[in-house]
Design goal:
The protein is α+β, with helices and mostly antiparallel strands. Helix content is 30%, strand content 39%. Strands 1, 2, 3, 4, 5, 6 and 7 form a 7-stranded antiparallel sheet that branches.
Length: 138
């Protein structure tokens, strides 16, 4: 189980993010989660799309450099302490989190957190063994 994250490498210039979102809109691809990290010269846009393969094809055709990565999306209660409990489970199980971000998707009373784990398979097993719900699509 798991989902594909698309990383798009962007020059840190005015309009590049607009070009990405327009490319995806023109391809009829809907975003489910989005995060961007930047430096002075470049950024890495991380997205979860409803049609990953179509998104990658559209972005590549438009000249963007992309990469797909396996990530884990976990639905948690939208109450204080839910994320802390999950972090404690990962700590006790010695699962290293490379990064995380939240999704645009979700139900009332729920939050979806996307994790890039150092050991993807181990992380999924820990979550599954502890009865934690993972999304396999958005």
């Amino acid at each position: 189980m798991g989902i594909k994250q698309i990383s798009v490498f962007l020059e840190n210039t005015t309009g590049r993010l607009s070009e990405v979102t327009k490319t995806l809109a023109d391809a009829q691809v809907n975003l489910r989660a989005i995060s961007i990290a930047d430096t002075a010269d470049f950024g890495i846009l991380r997205i979860i799309a409803d049609k990953s393969d179509k998104a990658v094809d559209a972005l590549t055709s438009a000249g963007f450099t992309t990469r797909q990565t396996d990530v884990v999306a976990v639905e948690i209660e939208d109450v204080p302490g839910s994320l802390a409990k999950l972090m404690e489970l990962f700590r006790q199980s010695q699962v290293n989190i490379e990064y995380l971000y939240a999704s645009l998707e979700g139900q009332v009373g729920k939050a979806v957190v996307i994790f890039k784990l150092k050991d993807h398979d181990k992380g999924q097993k820990i979550l599954s063994d502890n009865g934690i719900k993972m999304a396999d699509k958005f």
